[in-house]
Amino acid sequence: MMGLFYRLFSGKTAKSMEQSRRARIDLSAQNYAAIYALSDIHGCHGALLEAEKYIIEDAARLPGRKLLMLMGDYVDRGPRSSEVLQHLCEPPPAGFDRYCLLGNHDDAFLKFLDDPRANSHWLDFGAGATLASYGIDIDYLLREEGRSLEEFGNTVRAATPPAHIELLRSLPVVVAIEPIVFVHAGIRPGIALAEQTEEDLIWIREPFLSEGPQLPLLVIHGHTPVSRPSFESGRIGIDTGVSMGGYLTVLKIAGGRTTILATVPGDP
Predict the structure, then answer these.
(1) Whole-angstrom distance, CA of residue 200 vs CA of residue 173
(2) How many CB atoms lie within 10 A of CB 245?
(3) Which residues lie below 8 Å from residue 139, measured CB to CB, with a gap of 6+?
(4) What is the pTM of this model?
(5) C-beta neighbour count of 160 within 10 angstroms
(6) Radius of gyration, CA atoms only, the chain
(7) Which has the closest alpha carbon to 250: 35, 92, 79, 44?
(8) Considering only CA atoms, which of 3, 1, 4 is closest in space to residue 192?
(9) Other beta carbons within 10 Å of 31
(10) Number of C-alpha atoms within 13 angstroms, CB side, residue 180?
(11) Residue 249 and residue 260 in contact, taking contact as beta carbons nearer than 8 Å
(12) Fewest C-beta in 10 Å: which of 50, 94, 213, 255?
């Protein structure tokens, strides 16, 4: 397929190949009657289900296949991270393709599972709510029982279903549907997609937020909470703080138009 990635990823260097351990996916817009995107769910399972209801109802009026894009940060802060991951392990709604991108919180959780001592900073990163959703009381185990990080990590791994870990390992960092790019955080301005590091794709704020992509594409992203969706030059930010008293935004792209389909409050 001669899509956006074929052109912008041609001539990869060894360095860029090392930076592409996770999948970077190129799709054709002609395959889809509509695209629905939402970002930064942060354990708000109820909001995710409600957003999907709006999406399924709207999509029923459109003939053809649809695409559901989830753009990362499924865990931490909100109360039901384990249920969010379980939901994403199950098939997408009928008539939809679904891609789930990696967020920085998802990456931090997985790295903790792999090496708790080297990645203990995750425990101060909104992890308490994630652990509670798996039935783990971090204060009791670490402070009252005095377990070591290695022992605690073993407890967390044992409580996390293998399917959830496999899901986290499988998440891509970019989906491109020419000329739109979906990514969790953004991209480094003016740098070809082939040269973007995974760290930038899941962590960047500045200079991306102030300068935009500086490339001939539209980047749709989350990661940086805003009170309402940000429609800026070359980018649309749709993290509206669902786990922080805000809401979950559903962005719809169809017929050459980009609109807000729904806004859903976070879980209590």
Answers:
(1) 10
(2) 8
(3) 128
(4) 0.92
(5) 20
(6) 18
(7) 35
(8) 4
(9) 12
(10) 19
(11) yes
(12) 94
Token pair 């008539």 in the structure block, residue: 95
In contact, 77 and 243? CB cutoff 8 Å? yes
Alpha-carbon distance of 173 to 170, in angstroms, equals: 10
The answer to whether the peptide bond before residue 207 is cis (omega within 30 degrees of 0) is yes
The CA distance from 155 to 140, in Å, is 13
Print the SS3 string covering the chain.
CCCHHHHHCCCCCHHHHHCCCCCEEEECHHHCCEEEEECCCCCCHHHHHHHHHHHHHHHCCCCCCEEEEECCCCCCCCCCHHHHHHHHHCCCCCCEEEEECCCHHHHHHHHHHHCCCCCHHHHHCCHHHHHHHCCCCHHHHHHHCCCCHHHHHHHHHHHCCHHHHHHHHHCCCEEEECCEEEECCCCCCCCCHHHCCHHHHHHCCCCHHHHCCCCCCEEEECCCCCCCCEEECCEEECCCCHHHCCEEEEEEEECCEEEEEEEEECCC
At residue 144, the pLDDT reads 82
Q: Which stretches of the chain drop beneath a pLDDT of 70?
A: 1-20
